[in-house]
Amino acid sequence: MLTLLGVAVVIVGFAARFNPLLVVVVSALVTGLAAGMRPEEVLAAFGKAFNENRYVSVAWLVLPAIGVLERAGLQERARTLIAGIRAVTVGRLLLVYMLLRQLTAGIGLISIAGHAQTVKPLVAPMAEAAAELNDPNISIEEREKVRALAAATDNVALFFGEDVFLAIGSILLMVGFMEQSGIAVQPFELSMWAIPTAVAAFLVHGARLLLRDATAKKAGAK
Amino acid sequence: MITIQAVYLLVGVLFVVFAYLSVRDAANPRRWTTGVFWGLFATSFLAGDFLGDFGNGVLVLTMALIAGFGGLATGKVATTTGEERKAGAALRGNALFLPALIIPLVTVVGTILIKGIELPGLALGPWALIAPYFETKQATLISLCSPSPVSARSSAISRRNGCPRTTFSLQSRSIAWEWLRSR
User: Fold this and answer.
1) The model's pTM
2) Do A121 and A151 meet the contact criterion of CB atoms below 8 Å apart?
3) Which ipTM was obtained for this model?
């Protein structure tokens, strides 16, 4: 039971807004030590896992290409494009993005979008432009909120979209975990039942997006 | 055969460039620690399999300590001004979106060609002759990396935009998965 101390460290650490990196490392150390491992064993286990999971950092390769485009005015162009569409609002724009992201993630296309590839260079500037249409004197804080909402929409859509796809880590994890508890499930069954969850997530986050439009409109009318 | 190792080599070289540019940036108040961070990241990609578990542990701990205690900073990055960007956007128009859209497009097409399609109730094999030349397990990642032009000049910009936190949180998430799965 003591091994769960690491979880407490993560919760307290994030709540107290410590640097996430330190929180994760401290939590790993606490978990390992609580499980009776020697410090050097913990470090070795951590090193092994880090090395085996290097592939998650491969998306960095996309950044130079995005950097060149931003240098040439990609964000500015994205803004201009959105500013030309009258019907667009932050909520509607992000709703469309969310739907596309969930659908593509649901068929396993997880790496085609993301914070580095699509949110920062395209979606966030577009959402900002949409917010400017509603309120030309938008404050810096409100701008930051719109950007954060764009990033959050990507998170929610990916999280509740990828499980619909069979061959994803989380599905395999659940299958393995339930197998150990003596419950045999097929990956297909799990991914099928991820669909109602995905729909619910779309409705909940979608409602949140549209509510944001309504409040922003009210604030803008004042 | 193109495996994930080739991709790791590419990422490693990219991070070496990041490290070099960081150290050279005199305007960066933390240029040495920033350089060491990227150097260690590069080492992980280029030589991670030869360091041993403990060696990798020391490497990741050092990286975490550098980043955790504010050792990462950016200096002055050579880039365009807001006016230049507006002019660039006006000049190039929607053509600017093309490279950004090519990345996901090549990823999708590459994944399908190398790996085939797996949908519930539908499994199609690889569609093309190129498949044998790629490692199918990591098809999506290899495809994601194939169209990205890497230039030293541009990496300075992306370095400024990049936030290692995201990578680390992703990494810790998958580490947690691995750990749970191994139980």
Assistant:
1) 0.72
2) no
3) 0.73
